[in-house]
Amino acid sequence: MTHGLALFDTALGRCAIAWSDGGVAGVQLPEASDDRTLARLRRRRPGARESTPSAEVRRAIEGMTALLRGERVDLGDIALDMQDVMPFHRRVFDLARTIPVGRTSTYGELATRLGDPGSARAVGEALGRNPFPIVVPCHRVLAASGKLGGFSAHGGAVTKRRMLIIEGALLELEL
C-alpha cells in the first residue's frame, strides 16, 4: 500500500495530509511550524513520503481548504483509510461526519445516537484521537454544557472555536 504525504495551505495555516491506496489516511492541523506539522503526522504514518497528491487527494484538499474559507462544503464522500481505526472509533467518526456544516452536536447526543447514552466519555476519547480532523469534524462536537470542550489540535479550544466561526456555527461559548 503506497503512502504519500503533502502540506497544503488553509485559512488556519499549513495543514498536512497523508494518504494510501485506501484513501485519506490522516490529516494534521497546523502546528507551530511546517516541520512540526509533518513530524506529528509522520508519527501516525511513519511510512508516508512527501509526494504529489493524486486527483482524489487533491479533491480532498480542495474540499478542506474551501470549508476553511467558509464555504459550505460536504466532505462526506471523501474516502478514508480506516484500516487501523478501532471499530467503536470508526462508528463515532462515521456519525460525526453526519453533522452538517454550521451545526454542532454534543458528546452525549452522539453517544445516544450510537445506542449507548452512557458512552459520552468514550465518544470524546475517540474524537480526541481523530486522525482525520476537518474531514471527520470533531470540532463540531461540544460538551453537554454547550461549552467547547477539549480539542487536541495545536491551539486547543481557540482553534476549535475559530473553525466553528469559519463554518458559521452560532457560538456564544466561553473558552
Summarize the structure.
The chain is of the alpha/beta class and 175 residues long. It has helices at 34-44, 55-67, 87-96, 107-113, 120-128, 156-167, and strands spanning 4-10, 13-20, 23-28, 49-50, 105-106, 141-142.
List key phrases describing it.
175 residues; two-stranded parallel sheet; 2 domains; Arc Repressor Mutant, subunit A; four-stranded mixed beta sheet; 6 helices; Double Stranded RNA Binding Domain; 15% strand; alpha/beta; globular
Encode the helix/strand succession as letters: EEEHEHHEHHEH
Strand order of the largest sheet: 3-2-1-4
* Average pLDDT over all residues: 92
What's the number of structural domains?
A: 2
Strand count, sense and barrel status of the largest sheet are: 4 strands, mixed
Beta-strand percent range: 15-25%
The span between the termini is 41 Å
**So what's the overall shape?**
globular
Quickly name the level 1 CATH class of the largest domain.
Mainly Alpha
CATH homologous group name of the largest domain: Winged helix-like DNA-binding domain superfamily/Winged helix DNA-binding domain
Instruction: Please tell me how large the radius of gyration is.
Output: 15 Å
- Uncertain spans: none
Number of strands: 6
Please give the count of helices.
6
Q: Tell me the CATH topology of the largest domain.
A: Arc Repressor Mutant, subunit A
Assembly status: single chain
Q: What CATH architecture of the largest domain would you give?
A: Orthogonal Bundle
Strand-pairing-aware structural class: alpha/beta
**Helical percentage:** 25-40%
